[in-house]
UniProtKB/TrEMBL annotation:
Superkingdom field: Bacteria
Keyword vocabulary terms for this entry: DNA-binding, Transcription, Transcription regulation
Protein name per its UniProtKB record: TetR family transcriptional regulator
Source organism (scientific name): Planobispora siamensis
InterPro entries: Homeodomain-like_sf, HTH-type_TetR-like_transc_reg, HTH_TetR
Domain spans labelled HTH tetR-type: 8-68
Pfam family, one: TetR_N
Lineage of the organism: Bacteria, Bacillati, Actinomycetota, Actinomycetes, Streptosporangiales
Keyword Amino-acid biosynthesis listed: no
Gene Ontology molecular-function annotations: DNA-binding transcription factor activity; transcription cis-regulatory region binding
Length: 197
């Protein structure tokens, strides 16, 4: 690794490597050596930019959570277009086919990482809590447009959708949910509140 490389470049290189290792080999394989080997740099590079490996992992998780902002904005902008169920099924599939499921497993797997995240993330599991907020915001927008019932319990529907979708996608090494499974799940959960023509 040449000296003088901007910190942001090093962070992105290491975060990208961590994501690849995590997706390919799971949380138990995510070590500082695996990350630096995957990134093609010396192990010392990681330790020059982060206090320790758990500090690196905490920043990696928060960086991936921050990337969800654009997904949340796109989903909110979809309010009033397509179908509520179709928009939700597409958003949930995109979310859980990403690194999200692997990050949840990583946070669950590492006690020290959870402790570090609690310093800046006081409640819930990063990714899942952001996902609940994303879905709740979308459902509230659809409620404001009259496409779901005015008394729809958005704050209950959002975590129900996220939790059930997570169960469908939780087996990282298994097959994707069968075609239509996400659509059926969404229809079952929101069917009673949808008011679309």
């Amino acid at each position: 690794m040449p000296t003088g490389v901007a910190l942001r470049d090093v962070r992105e290189q290491l975060f990208g490597a961590a994501e690849r290792v995590l997706l390919r080999d799971g949380p138990s394989a995510l070590t500082s050596r695996a990350v630096t080997d995957e990134a093609g740099c010396a192990k010392g590079v990681l330790h020059r930019h982060f206090a320790d490996f758990d500090a690196f992992l905490a920043e990696f998780v928060l960086d991936r959570v921050d990337r969800m902002d654009s997904e949340a904005a796109a989903l909110r902008e979809a309010a009033g277009t397509g179908t509520v169920a179709g928009n939700l099924a597409a958003a949930l599939t995109a979310l859980f086919e990403s690194v999200a499921v692997a990050i949840v497993a990583l946070v669950t797997f590492r006690d020290e990482l959870r402790a570090r995240l609690r310093e800046t993330w006081p409640a819930g599991v990063p990714v899942l809590t952001e996902a609940v907020d994303m879905i709740a915001s979308y459902l509230a927008a659809e409620r404001d447009l009259g496409r779901i019932a005015r008394d729809a319990p958005v704050d209950m529907l959002a975590p129900t959708l996220i939790g059930t979708a997570h169960l469908l996608f939780a087996d990282r090494k298994g097959a994707r949910p069968e075609p239509g499974a996400v659509d059926r799940m969404v229809d079952t959960i929101i069917g009673g509140v949808v008011r679309e023509a």
